[in-house]
Amino acid sequence: MNIVVLGAGRVGGAIVRDLSEEPDFSVKVVDLDPQTEVRLRELGVDFELHDLSRASGVRAAVKDADLVVGCVPGFMGYSTVEAALGAGKPVVDISFFEEDAFGLDELAREQGVPCLVDCGVAPGLSNLILGHMEATLDETHAFRALIGGLPVERDWPWEYKAPFSPRDVIQEYVRPARMRRNGEDVTLPALSEVELVHFPGLGTLEAFNTDGLRTLLETSSTPELIEKTMRYPGHADRMRVLREAGFFSDDSILVASGTVRPRDVTESLLFDAWQFAEGEPDLTVGRFTIEGIENGAKVLHTYDLLDYYNPDTETSSMARTTGYTCAAMARLVATGRWTEPGVAPAETVGRQQDCFDFVLEHLAERGVHLFHRVESAD
């Protein structure tokens, strides 16, 4: 099985490491940065340099692939997946692209290949859980997802560092947050409705609206769908100040040195400020709750996630939780467990019990555990 991984940053690198341990897989990494080859050389994978921002570059990169795993930044994710599908390749993707993933469904079906999208932790693992619960419960009434990736140490002034591209983080703060309340789809500003959430053993975090539900708004009939991102308290206020002051704007402005886009400058500054130092520990925390009816009774299912940086493999928690979920999804396709042509988000996969169990077992084997509890909601 020849697997081509497009992009190998922090998360992509974890995916490459995971897949390269499978003796039946031959893994090739494609990236524009030659330092990626140096960083991943010990894994014994092949490496090629290609410009993945061009469809011709993607086609050249995937020409010998049996399966393509997409790990590029969100702004180029849709076009990259489209080019790989156009080459007739099945795709498993984690890029947080803005476009509607179902716009690729017809192409995937025409090519007769599966395309699993949003295969990270949230969206991804969170969607998988809801899909599983919708297939298990008699009725589902409400789904609420809280998720955050954070540095263990809180350093002034940001008390935050980005486990993936700052560009994609900022996109979470400017993209309107879509959700569902009382059966009606509504849209609110990102960073709105801040609330405090306590986690025993970790402390108090703040949660605010972001646009992480994505395909669930099309595929789920659950009348209440909420997704929020979590940070250390005070982060939302800082980000709102930057956003409302224009620092996240894509509109060019004239300054003494010429014409610039404020967002480009902000991203450049935050790229260094939000960069994790070598070996710096991070954590991923999540809470996914589903209310519904089971065997005639009102129940509340809660899945808690708390994961930390692994110093033995030098793998960040966000890379572990996101990357290992994606690697599990890739294995579903590679081993023939998922063969249905067309676009399938994680919630669709989660409705199949064997696929749901496979992904959670894959994560548990790598030390990423979901703690599930059920209680009465009466």
TrEMBL record:
<dbReference type="InterPro" id="IPR036291">
    <property type="entry name" value="NAD(P)-bd_dom_sf"/>
</dbReference>
<dbReference type="Pfam" id="PF03435">
    <property type="entry name" value="Sacchrp_dh_NADP"/>
</dbReference>
<dbReference type="InterPro" id="IPR005097">
    <property type="entry name" value="Sacchrp_dh_NADP-bd"/>
</dbReference>
<keyword id="KW-0560">Oxidoreductase</keyword>
<dbReference type="InterPro" id="IPR032095">
    <property type="entry name" value="Sacchrp_dh-like_C"/>
</dbReference>
<dbReference type="Pfam" id="PF16653">
    <property type="entry name" value="Sacchrp_dh_C"/>
</dbReference>
<feature type="domain" description="Saccharopine dehydrogenase-like C-terminal">
    <location>
        <begin position="120"/>
        <end position="368"/>
    </location>
</feature>
<feature type="domain" description="Saccharopine dehydrogenase NADP binding">
    <location>
        <begin position="3"/>
        <end position="115"/>
    </location>
</feature>
<protein>
    <submittedName>
        <fullName>Saccharopine dehydrogenase C-terminal domain-containing protein</fullName>
    </submittedName>
</protein>
<dbReference type="InterPro" id="IPR051168">
    <property type="entry name" value="AASS"/>
</dbReference>
